[in-house]
Amino acid sequence: MSYKVIDLFAGPGGLGEGFASLKGGKAFEIVVSAEMEESAHKTLTLRSYFRHAKLGQDRKALDAYYDFCNSSSAPHPKDVDPSLWAKATSEARQLTLGSKAGNEELDQLIAAAKLSSDKTVVIGGPPCQAYSLVGRARNLGKENYKAEDDHRHFLYKEYLRILQKVSPAVFVMENVKGILSSKVNGKLVFHDILRDLSNPSIATQSGDGPEYVIHSLVSDTTFSYGMDPGSIDPRDFIIHSERYGIPQARHRVILLGIRKDVLEGKSFTRLPRAEHLVTVEQALFNLPLLRSKLGRMDSASVWTKTVTELSIRLAQEALDAGTSEIAGALSNLKVSFSDELVTGELRMPRTKPIESTNDRYSDWVTDDRLNVWLNHETRSHMTSDLGRYLFASTFAEIFERSPKGHTDFALPSLVPAHANWESGKFADRFKVQLYTRPSTTVTSHIAKDGHYFIHPDPLQCRSLTVREAARLQTFPDNYFFQGNRTQQFHQVGNAVPSLLANQIAIICNELLTS
After folding, report:
1. Rounded CA separation 150/130 (Å)
2. 3-state secondary structure of 388
3. Alpha helices in 257-343 (DSSP H)
4. Taking a C-beta distance cutoff of 8 angstroms, is the pair 479, 47 a contact?
5. Do residues 460 and 341 lie in contact, with contact meaning Cβ atoms separated by under 8 Å?
6. How far apart are CA 426 and CA 273, in angstroms?
7. Spatial contact of 234 and 466, defined as CB atoms under 8 Å apart
């Protein structure tokens, strides 16, 4: 018998994917996933359809999914199998938690599911904009901003409300590292969150209810009701994803809450460390090479001419600046750019058989039933930014680090028109993702521009595509992100890496079935 899952603030479903895919979908069943943003909800619903088709070994429905992925002319799966699509739409719900209508709908769905608390798991990550360091810095610039009036600080209480209502055996809650230092009215928010999660009924003033022990997934640190939050190191709840086989240095707070009576007499293992780091090169190992787009006048020949001229000019500037190693590398590029590179597509045809390296990562992401690369399409970049990308990726190849601000971007044509460029505040304004290491954190900022996510190959001279970002987030290649490209980037950047979620699901399943 599978355990039922309620997925709150689901996004495109990274956390849910990790749970619902365990043991071929037989360990956990998502009964409801709640997400308010329209494009993420569309992705969530399509993925739900795929999972149900796969679990039910429904050949017609599964063929419809792959046909839709492989061809823009194929009918949408909802038109091929309306009954299975209805099942997917009953699971994936577009609703706003915290609103009256959203809460009422969720409560009705939970009541209709007739859940057993002993067989239920709640997962999710309340929105993090109010907690992230970037978000807090932005809020400080807002006139009359008061943290106590920002409803986003308290969206975790919607998560808490469901814990009180359902009393699940286990819950998993994820958030940004900044939640550990965020304050409201001078008090640490995280301390209140720990107290509230350890006894949801007391926190919601709903009488007596079960207590939870909050566990770190990577250390022996726990928090129980009545403890002083100041007595533990909150950093023990941070998971450094790169240590667990994720090709990304994503550092997030993940809490595992276990109902006290479920925990009695049981023990469980923490996340097992991976033997080796998974690098960017390993993550992108078989994706086709692409070139960037170049404004309205884009063509392969115009792009090749542009980047060739940039490499020649930058090589001369580097030579004049006395950096002969960079000058030589840039000069060598001028004969290597290919006008055969394309810019990719939403569905980019595959021209070679799918490769696999037979390791856990590649087995997780690859799918040989696909005839296309999904969501693998490049952005358009200004010529000035192409020069910076070209220099930065060349610099990174030589020195195995991304260049820093005005100290490394010292060539005249690379200096942006920012009055405070030399202040040092923009040291990482342009960041190359190095082939030899896990990437830096993929965030929703990738939707705005690609400056923090420059591809390491100078000959491609571009930022990452949605599919490449999805690879770093360990989304399977058959995960089809819906919406426009900006919305797709948002979805990927806000998600929990699905392979990390799967490892957490393994721990939860072993705990519940032991």
Report:
1. 8
2. helix
3. 260-263, 280-283, 300-320, 324-333
4. yes
5. yes
6. 34
7. no
Please name which of 369, 309, 87, 368 lies closest in space to residue 317, comparing C-alpha atoms.
309
Question: 159-192: per-residue pLDDT in tens?
Answer: 999 999 999 999 999 999 988 988 877 888 899 9
- Closest C-alpha among 50, 477, 441 to residue 241: 441
Sign of CA dihedral 480, 485, 490, 493: positive
Q: Are 250 and 497 in contact (CB under 8 A)?
A: yes
Among candidates 118, 93, 123, which has minimal Cα distance to 107?
93
**pLDDT (tens digit, 0 to 9) for every residue of the chain, 514 residues total?**
689 999 999 999 999 999 999 999 999 999 999 999 999 999 999 999 999 999 999 999 999 999 999 999 999 999 999 999 999 999 999 999 999 999 999 999 999 999 999 999 999 998 855 554 444 345 444 455 344 443 445 688 899 999 999 999 999 999 999 889 888 778 888 999 999 999 999 999 998 999 999 999 999 999 999 999 999 999 999 999 999 999 999 999 999 999 999 988 888 889 999 999 999 999 999 999 999 999 888 999 999 999 999 999 999 999 999 999 999 999 999 999 999 999 999 999 999 888 777 799 999 999 999 999 999 999 999 999 999 999 999 999 999 999 987 678 878 888 776 655 565 555 567 899 999 999 999 998 898 888 999 999 999 999 999 999 999 999 999 999 999 999 999 999 999 999 999 999 999 999 999 8
Measure the CA–CA gap between 174 and 127, rounded to whole angstroms: 10
Residue keyed to tokens 């910076």: 388
What amino acid is encoded at 246 in this protein?
I
Rounded to an integer, what distance in angstroms lies between the CA atom of residue 56 and that of residue 59? 9
**Are the C-beta atoms of 426 and 326 separated by less than 8 Å?**
no
* Measured CA angle at 25 (ends 53, 46), to 5 deg: 40
Residue ranges of the chain assigned to CATH 3.40.50.150: 3-278+496-513
Contacts of 158 (CB under 8 A, 6+ apart): 8, 97, 98, 103, 126
CATH (residue range 3-278+496-513):
3.40.50.150
Count of beta carbons in the 10 Å neighbourhood of residue 310 = 24
pLDDT tens, residue by residue, 126-144: 885 555 444 434 544 445 5
CA dist., res. 23 & res. 29, Å (int): 11
Secondary structure class of 432 (helix, strand, coil): strand
Dist CA 441 CA 241 (whole Å): 10
Which contacts (CB < 8 Å, 24+ apart) does range 403-408 have?
403/430, 403/432, 404/428, 405/429
pTM for the model stands at 0.93
CA distance 271 to 165: 29
Q: Rg (Cα) of the chain, in Å, rounded?
A: 24
Structure tokens at 113: 């599911």
